[in-house]
TrEMBL record:
Name this protein carries in UniProt: Pentapeptide repeat protein
Pfam families in the cross-refs: Pentapeptide_4 (PF13599)
PANTHER family, per the entry: ANTIBIOTIC RESISTANCE PROTEIN MCBG, PENTAPEPTIDE REPEAT-CONTAINING PROTEIN
Length: 200
């Protein structure tokens, strides 16, 4: 099968629709202002690639790999992104906000361990068993998400908006939560780790 992309090429303002490319490996490709719709990219390896201001809609990127790839201004909508180790991508220290946005995505079993991703947007996402330990997510929006069994430890969550999010287990003494917003009822879970008994 002929590959839609050639290694070492640049693609500007291209639209890619309904591609079936699971388990392929692509190297040294730069995508800028590209739209990916209804594509199966599960298990794909993007090695030393650049994804700049790209948009993924209804794509399957589960267990995709981004070794030494650079992402900036990328948005994912209604997509499946299970089992991705985001720490393998390149996150230059001179940036703190990479303008990443995830809306209505399934992101279970993924890792953001130790990353600095300020102003990250997670909107209506399913985030079971996701590792946020040691990361800096200052000023992020994490609205209406399900954080069942996700890990937060030594995580900077200052000014993060957790409105309408559920099932998070955040120890308020082990994480920085100053200025964070929590829905009133769900915020009661934060007190459990302090050994406080709540009475009606």
């Amino acid at each position: 099968m002929m590959e839609p992309w050639n290694n070492g090429e640049q693609y500007l303002e291209h639209s890619f629709d309904k591609l079936q490319l699971s388990e392929r490996c692509f190297k040294d490709i730069e995508f800028e202002e590209c739209l990916f719709s209804d594509c199966d990219l599960s298990g794909v390896q993007f090695q030393h690639c650049k994804l700049i201001n790209c948009k993924f809609e209804r794509c399957n990127l589960s267990v995709a790999h981004f070794p030494n790839s650079y992402l900036f201004g990328v948005s994912f909508q209604d997509s499946k992104l299970v089992g991705i180790d985001w720490t393998k991508a390149v996150w230059p220290i001179y940036h703190r906000d990479f303008e990443l946005k995830f809306q209505r995505c399934i992101m279970n079993d993924s890792s953001f361990f130790g990353l600095t991703l300020n102003e990250l947007v997670l909107d209506e996402c399913k985030l079971h068993d996701v590792d946020f330990r040691e990361g800096d997510f200052t000023g992020s929006t994490m609205n209406a998400c399900d954080f069942t069994h996700s890990l937060f430890m030594h995580t900077n969550l200052q000014d993060v908006d957790f409105s309408e999010s559920t099932n998070y287990a955040i120890h308020i003494l082990d994480n920085q939560v100053q200025g964070a917003k929590f829905t009133r009822y769900e915020a009661l879970n934060l007190l459990e780790y302090l050994g406080i008994e709540l009475l009606d």
